[in-house]
User: What shape does this take?
Amino acid sequence: MSKKFKFLETKAIHSGEPEPRILGSVVTPIFQTAMFEYDGSPDYNNLKYGRLSNMPNHEALHKKLAALENGERAVVTASGMSAIALSLMTVMEGGGHFLAQRQAYGGTISLINNQLPSSGITCDWIDPQDPSGWAKLLKPETRAIYTEAMANPTMEVADHKAVVAFAKAHGLVSMIDSTFASPVNFRPLELGYDLSLHSATKYLNGHSDLIAGAAVGNGDLVERIHHKLNIFGACLDPHACFLLHRGLRTLPIRVHFQNESTLAIARFLASHPLIESVNYPGLESHSGYARAQELFDGCGGVLSFVVKGDGSTAESLIKGLQLPIHTFSLGGIETLIVQPSRTTHVTMDPQEREAIGITDNLIRLSVGLEATEDLISDFQQALSRLSAQ
Assistant: This one.
């Protein structure tokens, strides 16, 4: 019988571990095999085969993730985008209409705009902070509403309570990409969301050495997603499962530090004369501050800021920094920095980007585990050099 634990830090280490331990091993071994001997199961989805995502490494992860989110069931996938795509295709199977927040990850926007319509799936974009406009977009075939915990990269905080209430009132499936928050800061299933999605590449793993995704939520819904995954073959390999499992064990301590460090850096940047604005819901000046204080246990390790000037000015600042690595992605132990208009949201029309606040001089920063003081000193020297140009 699986043990139940109250606190997240204990769940991260002990939930989902095999009982009894496999040959007494404290760490779940890597089962580097494609299949297991047939056990007589009549159900195809229960055959022990790697593509079906039901090997011991998968199952340990599924149980641990469900425990961390307080969900009924979880499934891991080959990437965050596969988790999003499979979930939307499952919820919207057969075609239909859904609502999604207008500020979202570029890959999600591309999926919705360029791929789903060919399957008869259409979408209307909503302002996630203004519930008054949602009802007029409903259609008889509307089946779901999709949000992000904090919008990438502007850090906008949706009215999540209103989303859940709206979904329940209209019989919609509520789906959220909770990557930026992680279960440490926000557990949307506790609020009433039906499905919580993650790019496990980011905080859940935390070490920038694998690509993975996860879906956690209602047992029946996650089972349907799992079965669709089995057909599309978006399984996570055993070694990646092992690395993700290891990363989850340090998730709480990593995110707690990143919460504190990012807030300190956000305050420094907000006070600097060369910085036009800072987007971080932990700042009192942010439009989502009050909502974040009510919903979140922390505001995460990502912020974005607008440097005075243009895209070239932003590029010069990035080049002047010594510690942050100039690349996309986020949530790792290393601090990463990027211009979203040239990377994560480059496929969007420039006018569309600017309409949702993604200008060329917007910079996104993912704060790692370096000393906060070292990161602030690095920004001080880079901004000083920028002002001298």
